[in-house]
Specification:
Blueprint: E1 2-7, E2 39-49, H1 55-59, H2 70-76, H3 82-92, E3 96-102, E4 106-116, H4 130-137, E5 143-147, H5 151-163, E6 167-171, H6 174-181, E7 199-203, H7 211-223, E8 233-237, H8 242-250, E9 255-258, H9 263-274
Parallel strand pairs: 5-6, 5-7, 7-8, 8-9
Antiparallel strand pairs: 1-2, 2-4, 3-4
Length: 276
């Protein structure tokens, strides 16, 4: 059985519950990334019923390469490092760990860590763009193509965008993007007849054809005049390192956003690319 509780003060650290910290680590909670929320302590307790341990067995339980007894290794395996690492990680986060146990009854492991409270961000209303607002007033929706091979991600993002009033289509990989563009009014052989397409949200890593390859093909088609207008494309990827973002831009993407993202972070990018 596991239990979670929160304390606004340092939990009681008697030897029956928590072991004394053996290493002094830097207090990380004064750094800017932790914010200024109130300090609190998360307390986790896991209890079991079973063979339990004697006081002698408990003595070396958290030592490096040490187990409760020789029988422990023979019966259960392991190297005797797991609880030593757990103790170190807990102390790095300003906490302590300990255990109480009764032979033949069971054991109760407990630890606490230090953290700060956080608060839900205040999200201001985001307007898509002047062009989008005008389009909405006349009943016309911005058309977005969501390109994502993960069907769960695809459905969630599409549903959110539809709820916001966008006309949303989906593709599973880069080749389907090219096939969709060939159905739009921007495909020269269609003579201005076909579907609207205002923005493409392009995943980068996909089967069949990846996003970067699809992007290069789109820009080549634009240069050759087969696609008659510049199609705005936003790279959507978990690869958020500077060089990876630059690689996407070099392939022809107009902007990039890293997964996971929130819709209010995406809307200004759509607005900028669709503004007339």
């Amino acid at each position: 059985m596991a239990k979670l509780s929160i304390s606004e003060t340092v939990p009681e650290t008697d030897l029956q519950t928590y072991l004394p910290a053996t290493t002094v680590f830097e207090d990380i909670f004064d750094k800017a990334e932790w914010g200024t929320g109130e300090i609190v302590y998360l307390i986790i307790t896991v209890e079991d019923t079973g063979v339990g341990m004697s006081d002698e067995e408990l003595h070396n339980l958290f030592a490096r390469f040490s187990q409760a007894s020789v029988k422990t290794h023979v019966r259960y395996g392991g190297s005797g490092l797991g609880l030593f690492i757990s103790k170190s990680l807990v102390e790095m986060q300003g906490g302590q760990i300990g255990v109480t146990s009764t032979p033949g009854v069971g054991s109760s492991f407990s630890f606490f860590i230090k953290t700060r409270k956080t608060y839900a961000p205040i999200v201001e209303e985001v307007k898509y763009s002047n062009a989008a607002a005008d389009a909405n007033e006349t009943g016309k929706k911005l058309a977005i193509l969501v390109v994502e091979d993960n069907l769960v991600n695809q459905k969630i993002l599409a549903k959110q965008l539809v709820k916001l009033g966008f006309d949303v289509h989906v593709a599973n990989h880069g080749q389907e993007v090219l096939d969709w563009i060939a159905k739009t009014k921007y495909w020269k052989p269609n003579n201005g007849q076909g579907a609207d397409l205002d923005v493409v949200l392009m995943d980068v890593e996909m089967p069949v054809m990846d996003g970067l390859t699809a992007m290069r093909n789109i820009r080549t088609l634009e240069r050759r005049g087969i696609v008659t207008e510049h199609i705005p494309v936003i790279a959507v990827s978990a690869n958020a390192r500077t060089e990876q973002v630059q690689q996407a831009l070099n392939a022809g993407m107009d902007d990039a956003i890293a997964k996971p993202f929130r819709i209010p972070e995406l809307l200004p990018k759509i607005a900028r690319l669709t503004r007339s």
